Amino acid sequence: MASLLEGKARPIRLADIAKAAGVSHGTASNVFSRPEIVRAEVRERVKAVAEQMGYAGPDPKGRLLRAGRVNAIGVATTEPLSYFFDDPFARVMMAGISEACDATGAGIALVSAANQEKLAWNIQSALVDGFILFCIEGGSRLVDLTRERRLPFVALELGFQDETVSAIGVDNVAGARLAARHLAELGHRRFAVLSLAFADNRTGFATPDIVRGALYTGTRDRLAGYFEELSRFGVDTTKIPVYETENEERSTRAGLEAIFARGEAPTAILAMSDRMALIAIDWLKARGLSVPGDVSIVGFDGVPDGALCTPPLTTIAQPITEIGRRAARMILDHDGAVRRETMGVELIVRASTGPARKG
Amino acid sequence: MASLLEGKARPIRLADIAKAAGVSHGTASNVFSRPEIVRAEVRERVKAVAEQMGYAGPDPKGRLLRAGRVNAIGVATTEPLSYFFDDPFARVMMAGISEACDATGAGIALVSAANQEKLAWNIQSALVDGFILFCIEGGSRLVDLTRERRLPFVALELGFQDETVSAIGVDNVAGARLAARHLAELGHRRFAVLSLAFADNRTGFATPDIVRGALYTGTRDRLAGYFEELSRFGVDTTKIPVYETENEERSTRAGLEAIFARGEAPTAILAMSDRMALIAIDWLKARGLSVPGDVSIVGFDGVPDGALCTPPLTTIAQPITEIGRRAARMILDHDGAVRRETMGVELIVRASTGPARKG
DNA sequence: GCGGAAATTTGAATCGATCCAACAAAAATG
DNA sequence: CATTTTTGTTGGATCGATTCAAATTTCCGC
């Protein structure tokens, strides 16, 4: 009777093999996970039975539960999944993470979600040993959500006050100063800033109040760096327009419109990301302005695209790949400690900056 | 006594909460997975206990084992992990896959490995409900390995004789014919082909024997398409040099060297990938040859980069994003059937092709 | 206060493996 | 040949949840 029902497509378990081969499940398990400790004769017999019954090998689901370790790290963001494949900064970062994972055989699980509830669920149910968080917009929510999982995690970008969170970032103040000094030394005195977000869901000119109340301290630090350095050159920083964008096409162009609609056009633009800088170059060229003839531009990040555009972009390069590698290592070798690392940055002078025009 | 030892950092389980709150595991489980069926008063009490004990929520590892479903799909290749973030074709494909996954809340696990043993292990131990295989070099091995997992999988690229494998690909013959006709109609009569691999680990001019014995039938079909169409225009296809590359920089340049070292230089190049086509444009320009003045080039794939280079690339566009979407859907809605889909392709004429020079 | 329907709660079974202490058999030693 | 050692095998416990049939409680109307 029962044998008639066995046609069911129920997948074969290790226990089935053990029974069929006449050994205990312990031995059957050893045949697959530690073949060297089981007698050759038995080993071959079990393997033959497994082969013949069409056993797919030990199911990782079962192994996982026992082992407790997934051997994969989750990379999460509030952007849609395609962000990982589109955004140049993310891509370079992922290359670094991939490298570290490849080296240890760990896997990568991409986590993201179109909406907030899904994000929460995806974070809660991701099968990973830890998370690397891309703290773009909505970063603080992402951190809160992840904290609840009680797994190790690292935030990329140190733009967090919260000292209890492990993070890797760059020295934003120093980088910003490098950029500002470079332009000032070229003789520029009229500036505009294309800024990253100070808080979520805002664009437009930033007031001192907004800057003081910044949620993203990384943005605040970069601005502080710009201003500190420019002050040393006698520039009145209170007159510098700072336009907060969402680091994408639309709001960046809106920012440029707004900046150039004001009385005195800047001769130099400090962009807090290469992405904005590249959009700016494009916008300026379309407007008939020469870069760097009429306007010089310095970016921030050092993505590969910056080297390929026309003119090639002068920028503050972060060691993006290295940050990715370290973040992955931090999760893989996690020891329970909170680590906060600040990496150095480097000014890369290309052709998007030149001497200020006379007058 | 025992209570003194409880300081151990052993993570809290659902059972601990149940005991502490004085309910059964069943009820405790329901509080988290189906809160609506438990009495409000009990629900709040359990939640309060969980909160107070620092419970991280039901562990996905446990849930997974019971549920049997991971809710994630694996994307595998024999290239290193960074391939997913570097290669333009892969990136567009991933965008399509991401889209489908985002829509259903499924996750993506990237699987790859530097070496063969690791690849096997990674495929065997990936926590996924199915695989999408990028069948580049070593595709057949990848298919064999995946088949052993007995999970649903789809091969991208139909270049497989094996009809028992689900696959999505494009009509290679039709695409190739489109490319060849376009060039022939422009008056070209002297051709060269930059070919994808016919088998693993080979580069150099392909002989008829190699073509006949092709492991990758997709490559063979494209070549057949080129030849069929050119024959109709009276071109002697036996004289056309076909150089097999590894679809990367070094071997493609070597191929170009070899092709142009021969007697009569071609006036048109048929490249089986945009990647090779772009490398060819670069190589020709560096050599002082004008594209399309001296040499016309048609690519294959339709990656975004092709539209941005100078001159913009004429190519056979595959519906890459759509292929990715369908592949993901095939895994997510898997019904046990083997599906083989062939998508149409489209000739996109840009500026890398022009009339053949007189003489 | 009672019967019966509806709403909750219980606890054993299950998912698919790995680990390990205990035991058995074979081999080496005195 | 008795006694260690070495080598292999066994079967119960465990990982952390979910499920479901059965037991219990609550709620209602009469």
Given as residue ranges, the uncertain stretches of chain A (5+ residues, pLDDT < 50) are: 1-8
**Beta-strand content estimate of chain A:** 5-15%
Number of helices of chain A: 16
Oligomeric category: homodimer
Strand order of the largest sheet of chain A: 7-8-6-9-10-11-13
Return the CATH class of the largest domain in chain A: Alpha Beta
Q: Taking Cα atoms only, what radius of gyration of chain A do you get, to the nearest Å?
A: 27 Å
What is the general shape of chain A? elongated
Largest sheet of chain A: 7 strands, mixed
β-strand number of chain A: 13
CATH topology of the largest domain in chain A: Rossmann fold
**CATH superfamily grouping of the largest domain in chain A:** Response regulator
**Rounded mean pLDDT score of chain A:** 92
Would you tell me the structural class of the helices and strands of chain A? alpha/beta
Q: Number of domains in the coordinates of chain A?
A: 3
- Protein chain pair with the most extensive contact, residues per chain: A-B, 48 and 48 residues
Structure description:
- 2 copies of one chain form a homodimer.
- Chain A has about 350 residues and is α/β, with parallel strands linked by helices.
- The termini of chain A are far apart.
- Chain A has 16 helices and 13 strands.
- In chain A, strands 7-8-6-9-10-11-13 form a 7-stranded mixed beta sheet, with helices on both faces. Chain A has a 6-stranded parallel beta sheet with strand order 2-1-3-4-5-12, with helices on both faces.
- Chains A and B meet through helix 5, helix 6, helix 7, strand 2 and helix 8 of A and helix 5, helix 6, helix 7, strand 2 and helix 8 of B.
- Strand 2 of chain A pairs antiparallel with strand 2 of chain B, so a sheet runs across the interface.
- Chain A binds a DNA duplex (30 and 30 nucleotides) through helix 3 and helix 5.
